[in-house]
Amino acid sequence: MKLSARNQIPGKIKSITEGVVTAEVVIELDGGGDLVSVITRKSVESLGLAVGKRVYAVVKSTEVMVAID
């Protein structure tokens, strides 16, 4: 599959916490650090997501903030 989003960050699922409608998916990034996504439970099921599965975090945004201390 090809996407127009430039930010496709590889990693593996570290944890999935399911709620009534949504699920919090924590992705351990290959380059270090974690990224958290909240998606629907239906999406978790249809994608067959499970802890340890290889995935891509895809970020498409018109605004990305940069901050310093």
UniProtKB/TrEMBL annotation:
Chaperone recorded as keyword: no
GO cellular component: plasma membrane
GO BP annotations listed: molybdate ion transport
A Pfam match: TOBE
Domain Mop: 2-68
Main location per the UniProt record: membrane
Location relative to the cell: Cell membrane
Record keywords: Molybdenum
SUPFAM superfamilies: MOP-like
Membrane topology: Peripheral membrane protein
KW 4Fe-4S (keyword) present: no
Name by which UniProt lists this protein: TOBE domain-containing protein
Organism: Methanoculleus receptaculi
